[in-house]
Amino acid sequence: MFEESKSPAQSVSSLGEFKLIDELTQSFKNQLKSSVKGIGDDAAILEPTHEQILVSTDLLIEGVHFNLGYMPLKHLGYKAVTVNLSDICAMNAIPTQITLAIAVSNRFNLDALKEFYAGVETACKTYKVDLVGGDTTSSTKGMTISVTAIGSVEKEKACRRDGAKEGDLIVVSGDLGAAYLGFQILERERKIFEVNEHHQPDLDLYAYLVERQLKPEARKDIVELLKQLDVNPSSMIDISDGLASEIKHLCKESALGCKIYEDKIPIDPTVVRTAEEFKLDPSLCALSGGEDYELLFSISQEDYTKIKANPNLSVIGHFTGPNTGCYLVGRDESMAEITAQGWDSFRD
Ligand code: ADP
Ligand code: MG
Known about the structure:
Layout: H1 12-15, H2 17-25, E1 35-37, E2 45-46, E3 52-61, H3 73-89, E4 94-104, H4 110-127, E5 130-138, E6 143-153, E7 169-173, H5 178-195, H6 207-214, H7 220-228, E8 235-238, H8 243-254, E9 257-261, H9 269-277, H10 282-288, E10 295-299, H11 304-307, E11 313-320, E12 326-329, E13 335-339, E14 342-343
Parallel strand pairs: 4-5, 9-12
Antiparallel strand pairs: 1-2, 3-6, 4-6, 7-10, 7-11, 8-10, 9-11, 12-13, 13-14
Bound molecules: adenosine-5'-diphosphate and magnesium ion.
The site of adenosine-5'-diphosphate has 13 residues, from helix 2, strand 4 and strand 5.
């Protein structure tokens, strides 16, 4: 966990900006031919691998988007990269490069920043993307991180939010709700630790949930899988805020309604068990929890046979005509309107 800077020899201010950038980035090696010039000049030079380029930026503020109380810096570095790559994947594209800007207060020493960059490097290697630039500056308080991800895609193959057609099937990758419960587990441990600092958390039972919260993955594998299966989704988005909010985005942008079937939503048994422990509805965790970073997309009905056998993909519903509303069909066949928070519960 994060330690305050004790040794002045390792303080960032004594190092100077150029030495610091060098210390943090020297182990990064470019992996892609398309990274013609990376770190070390006024700007990076990239040579696109496909006709269309995708660019996406996220800003992460300490205390707002992350809490170093339970987020180890290495995980933070990993997550800062993967959640950005997820946005590129959500366009059905392959991420290729990132740039990373950080602002840190003198609370952070060199070792702490190296931890953070170790996580960044692991993510870059895992996803075969190159860190090609960034900026480093001081802040008066806390840590701010900005990541820009770059990717490329064949012309006409990018999947936007507005491309769904009436009757298209709604598909989700992986399973939902785990990252939210992972957060609940970490919060519970933090509160116990506040009153008893000798408390040793036993997180084994919840390992999957905590991992989904601390180490989310971008579903680049799904983009590759869809290409292999020759499926070109009509619309796509990644699930950062919860299924309910994301499906509403697709409906709004595509000017359609939808029906989602509660019993089709993929939920891991650990999520069901832990939701019960917290007296939460597992479906609500999936609908409103967020941070799962799975892909939500639509395909034409003709493409159903291409994906139906795949254990990583679940068909959870379909798009309905314009102005028909977004509905969740419950296990008891009740219909409830989906709201960004989950659903309007007519049932209790
Ligand atoms: P400039 O003065 O032109 O902004 P910098 O000294 O900020 O240049 O950066 C020098 C090089 O190091 C540039 O290639 C820049 O992209 C890269 N760089 C700076 N900070 C970071 C960082 N935190 N992570 C990765 N690369 C960085
Ligand atoms: Mg600079």
